[in-house]
Amino acid sequence: MKLKFYGTRGSIPVCDVGFQQFGGNTTCFQITFTDTNRIAIVDAGTGLRKLGKDLRAIGHVQDQIPIAFTHFHWDHIQGFPFFAPAYDTKQKITILTVGQNQTVENLREVFEIPLQSHYFPIQLGLMGAQFDFLKIEEASQHFTLTSSTPTKVTGQRHNHPGGAYSFRIERNGKVLVISTDVEHGEHIDMQLVELARGADLLVHDAQYTAEELPSHRGWGHSSYDQALQVAEMAGVKQLAITHHDPEHDDEFLLRMEQLCKERFAETVLAREGMEIAL
Ligand SMILES: [Zn+2]
Ligand SMILES: [Zn+2]
After folding, report:
1. What is the distance in A from the centroid of ligand 1 to the CA of 118?
2. What's the pLDDT score for residue 49?
3. Which of 145, 183, 217, 254 is the most buried (most CB within 10 A)?
4. CA of 13 relative to ligand 2 center, distance in Å
5. Pairing state of beta strands 201-205 and 174-179?
6. Residue 142: its pLDDT value, please?
7. Residues around the ion ligand 1 (C-beta < 5 A)
8. Which residues surround ligand 2, an ion (CB under 5 A)?
9. Residue 111 CB partners (closer than 8 Å, separation 6+)
10. What is the pLDDT of residues 24-69, one digit of tens each?
11. Where do the H-state alpha helices sit in the chain?
12. Which ligand is nearest to the CA of 164?
C-alpha cells in the first residue's frame, strides 16, 4: 500500500509565505491499495479538496469511496464540502468511524449540521453522492471491498478532547499506523505503543516542542519527543510526524526534522504531497 499526505497542518489552514514546503492544508490522508488500485481516505481536512481534484485528473473510477474519521474537529472535516466526488450522483461514499467505545450518536448529523444553510449553501442531501454512515468496530471490508487479499483495519480510541481514534491497517504483510490528535499526558499511552508495534510506518501527531507542551495541556496533542518515544518503544521502521502547528513555519520544521533524525534516523516531517510506499 501507499500513503499520500494531502494535509499536514493542524488546527487551521495556513497560506502564508514560509509555510509552503510542509504545506498549509489540514489533515487528510489517501491510502492506495496498489494491487487493486482502490483508495481509502482518512480524515477530510482541507487537503481533501486537492485529493478529489487529483482523482478527477487521473480519471480514477471507484464505485464506493470510504472515508474513515479519526474524529470530527473542524480541521478534520472542513474539506468535505469541497470534495468533487461528493457532488457526483453515481458516486457512493461511505463515511466511517472505526473502533470500540464510540461516543458519537448520530453520524449523519455530524455532517448534516455544519452543512445547514446558516453555514454552507449546499445541504448534505443536495450534494448528490449516495452517502452511507457507518459506526463499526471493524472496517476491513469497507476499506478494500471485494479484494481477496486479507486486510485488517483496527481503530483504537486515544486521549483527545472529545475522543479520537488511531488506525492500524495491515495488508500483504505491511503495517501502517496513523495516530493523529493524540495527547499522551504524563505518560506515553502504552495501548498506542502496542497498536503501533512493529509498524512499517507510524504517522504520529507532534504539534508541539517539549517546551511548548506544558502550556498546551488539554489541547489534545503531542510533542516531537513523545512521537519519537512511541516510535522507539513500538519498534517501528519509519516515523512520519504530522499535524504541524500553524505557528511553525518551514524553517522551524526543518530544524525540528533535523533534531528528530539525530535521535531516530528514519523520521520525516510530513510534507503536503509526500508519498510513502510500504
Ligand atoms: Zn486536528
Ligand atoms: Zn482534534
Report:
1. 24
2. 98
3. 183
4. 14
5. parallel
6. 75
7. 10, 75, 181
8. 73, 181
9. 77, 80, 95, 124, 131, 133
10. 999 999 999 998 999 999 999 999 999 999 999 999 999 999 999 9
11. 48-57, 107-112, 140-144, 190-196, 224-234, 250-263
12. 2
How many Å apart are CA 204 and CA 241, to the nearest integer? 5
Tell me how far apart the alpha carbons of residues 98 and 95 are, in angstroms, rounded to a whole number: 10
Task: Determine how many CB atoms are found less than 10 A away from the CB of residue 154.
Answer: 19
- Within the chain, strands assigned E span 2-7, 28-33, 38-42, 64-68, 92-98, 130-136, 151-158, 164-171, 174-179, 201-205, 239-242, 267-269, 275-277
Q: Report CA(150)–ligand 2 centroid distance (Å).
A: 31
- Taking residue 170's Cβ as centre, other Cβ atoms within 10 Å add up to 18
- How far is ligand 2, taken at its centre, from the CA of residue 16, in Å? 22
Q: How far apart are CA 3 and CA 278, in angstroms?
A: 8
CA of 146 to the centre of ligand 2 (A): 32
In the structure grid, which three cell numbers stand for residue 28, read together?
Answer: 487528510
What are 95's strand-pairing partners?
67, 133
Euclidean distance between CA atoms 110 and 269, whole angstroms: 31
The 10s digit of each residue's pLDDT in 92-139 is: 999 999 999 999 999 999 999 999 999 999 999 999 999 999 998 876
